[in-house]
Design brief:
4 helices, alpha+beta, 143 residues
């Protein structure tokens, strides 16, 4: 199986999630992946009923998994009200889409983000990203 560069290994996962959210009718206004360690990324989605005056951001961090936060203009990009999703470290786009529906509806359960792994671990998460296995999610059927 070919191995792709660390930098390019960061793009397929958030791209696949953004595509799944869009296909499910959840507006994705922006998304990106960080080019440094630990790997992370964020998607700005439709505002929800609870925080109509703020951007709703779905975040992914390779050590903690998924969480969501809000950011108002006066926050200058800082996220507030961070709540973790109990989806594991590298959930598939369908699982993220189901959770995002709850976030947009304002019904997702609140929990504190916690550590799941270390970014230097050479485990299944790192191997999947390096091998480009997340690319297969680009063609996965949305939930």
């Amino acid at each position: 199986m070919p191995v792709i560069s660390e930098h390019h290994a960061r793009q397929p996962y958030p791209a696949a999630v953004a595509a799944a959210l869009s296909a499910a009718g959840i507006g994705v206004h922006d998304w990106g992946a960080n080019a440094s360690d630990p790997r992370d990324g964020a998607l700005v989605i439709d505002r929800n009923r609870t925080h109509a005056d703020a951007e709703v951001v779905l975040c992914w961090h390779e050590e903690r998994g998924r969480c969501r936060g809000i950011s108002r203009e006066e926050d200058h990009g800082e996220l507030r009200h961070l709540h973790a999703a109990d989806l594991g470290v590298l959930p598939g786009p369908a699982d993220v889409t189901a959770w995002a529906r709850e976030v947009v509806a304002g019904t997702d359960p609140a929990s504190e983000p916690g550590a799941c792994r270390d970014f230097e671990d050479d485990d299944e998460v790192a191997q999947r990203l390096r091998a480009g296995l997340c690319r297969s999610w680009l063609v996965e059927s949305p939930a």
